Amino acid sequence: MNFSKWPKHSILAIAILTTWIKTVIVYHTSFEMDIENAMQELILIINPLSFLLFAYGISLFFKTAKVRHRYLITVSVLLAIVLFANVAFYRFYNDFITLAVLFQTSNFGDLGTSVTEIINWYDIFYFTDVVVLILAIKFLPKLQETTPIRKEIRRAYFVLAVAMVFLNLGLAETERPQLLTRAFDRELLVKNIGTYNYHLYDIYVQSKSSAQRALADGSELVEVDNYVQANQSAINEEMFGKYKGRNVIFVQLESLQNFVINNTMNGEVVTPFLNSLTQDKDTYYFSDFYHQTGLGKTSDSEFIVENSLFGLGSGAVFFTHGGNTYNSMSEKLNENGYFTSVMHSNNASFWNRDVIYQSLDIQKFYDVDSYDVTDENSVNWGLKDIPFFEQSVDMMTEMEQPFATRMITLTNHYPFTLTEEDIMIPEYNSNSGTLNRYFQTVRYLDESIKIFFEELKEAGLYDNSIIVMYGDHYGISENHNKAMAQYLGKEEITAYDSALLQSVPLFIHIPGSNDGQVIDKTSGQIDIRPTILHLLGIDTSNDMQLGDDMFSEEHEDFVIFRDGRFVTDQLVYAGEVCYDRGTGEEIEIDACQPYIDRALIELEYSDQIINGDLLRFYDEDTGNLKQNVIKEEKE
Ligand code: GP9
Ligand code: MN
């Protein structure tokens, strides 16, 4: 090879290429990333490039080759350290590093003892690109060392870098819509925007929330507390503690909306088992109950139920505030002798569950690794609901009692697909494949719950438990309005209809209670925490919660959605229009105004608590501010 022919920017090109190739090899050898199609593979291959072009490209601004080379070596060493740190972390936690976790020092207690097991001698290969770069600088002839770099070249170079960013984001958006706004999962982020960009994104999200946290001092809580106290209804004495000591099994029913309950599709009953529960002597069926989730979807509904606070207006609070102090329902249950867990057959890192569950004091997460998942028993997102319930009940028999667990189903999730043998009713006939298939997966979900009840009885867990089941969020978005209008026999779906379609079913099934009823009080997920804790005889009068006991005589028919819409027994407010609930007619805004104001206040208080991490200042045993915390934080 004739070295004198090497072009001027060879060193920069070598730095970019070697780190790029190394990163792609590391993706494939050191992380377990499910690549499902050629597009995902392509995104994975190109995703380190945009960041590397920028990071190394800054060298073009330095005048002498010497400084340029020093800079390139420094960057390559730093990037190698970052990548290797992720590899080491992944070996232990099966997850990528996030700033929030780095600062949760308790995590590293575990890591410290096993560093020697995590790191091997051959890990030196993770620094191969640094070595190649140093050798290249040493041995390649130094051409035109001091000529300054032409502006046009620099400009063209950065135009190319920006184009790479757009290409990457564009491809990622087609593969995963709303990737950045919803921030589902670190694995998905890394898969789509690359490790290095992922860290930038994480730094941005975390610094935004720590700035808000740093500015808070707890004094904001006084006003919130007054509001909360004024809004708590008197407890229902008869119900308080009536089921003390029972196990509680929450079942989050994926994407289940209320419109399918007691309804048919082309003559087929969609939810025969759940329909029977609406008439059952041991079941309270709440027929005017709503989800209150935002972009965090499933995770928001978990958050709302645990904390009786709203999720956030943008992003998923599970991600953005996973390290906050919370006074969760699980924490209260632990204090009252319960063993708390979540059962869900997905990666632990999805929705940042592995991290926030520690903050929520959930004692055990039965994630995908607790289940036997095979090609035969899975579809769509993973383990089918019937084997999920069967395997979960087996694990429940081993749990220390009383226990409280939250089971999260998966099969009735977009794109609503089933394998042939699980199809029990035909598809619907609209222009929306999504809605057409939805009825079939809902039918399957219904069947799985029936089997779940039978399994609980067989395992001897049924009589001593309370089973609380609710839809987590809508399954059919407004993109399918035309098909929905056809199904509901309406001309069109208006903002009024859309709001009412956010109703999800809630069943509180209490074996032996003999008091089953259909309850049409207007309520929402935020009310579950106080309602259930009160049934178990656990006091919540000092808790910073925005929900209200649904069994209270004073419970107000008023439910607020995350985007400011609301529903009462008389009114619906949506699309900035006030509707008479009974007729669906538009009415004067004055009728809605007091509720509009209250909705904004409640959402604002909830945001303040979360953004300021205010519960770290609050002592829920006494209902007072922790004075010492305020002082410490200020020092
Ligand atoms: C993932 C599952 C689905 O674990 O809970 O989340 P979703 O997409 O419905 O928010
Ligand atoms: Mn969901």
Helix content range of the residues, please? 40-55%
> Count of helical segments?
25
Oligomeric state of the chains in view: single chain
Strand content: 5-15%
The Rg value, from CA coordinates, equals 28 Å
Query: How far do the termini sit from each other?
Result: 64 Å
Largest sheet: 8 strands, mixed
From the helix content, strand content and strand pairing, which structural class follows?
alpha/beta
Shape estimate: globular
* Ligands bound, unique: (2R)-2,3-dihydroxypropyl phosphate, manganese (II) ion
**Total count of strands:** 21
Brief descriptors of the model:
635 residues; alpha/beta; 8-stranded mixed beta sheet; 5-stranded antiparallel beta sheet; binds (2R)-2,3-dihydroxypropyl phosphate; binds manganese (II) ion
Task: Describe the protein's architecture and organization.
It contains 25 helices and 21 strands. With 635 residues, the chain is of the alpha/beta class. The strands form six sheets. It has an eight-stranded mixed β-sheet with strand order 7-6-10-1-11-12-4-13. A five-stranded antiparallel β-sheet has the order 15-16-17-18-19. The chain has a two-stranded antiparallel ribbon with strand order 2-3. A hairpin with a 5-residue loop joins strand 18 and strand 19. Helix 3 packs antiparallel against helix 9. The site of manganese (II) ion has 6 residues, from helix 15.
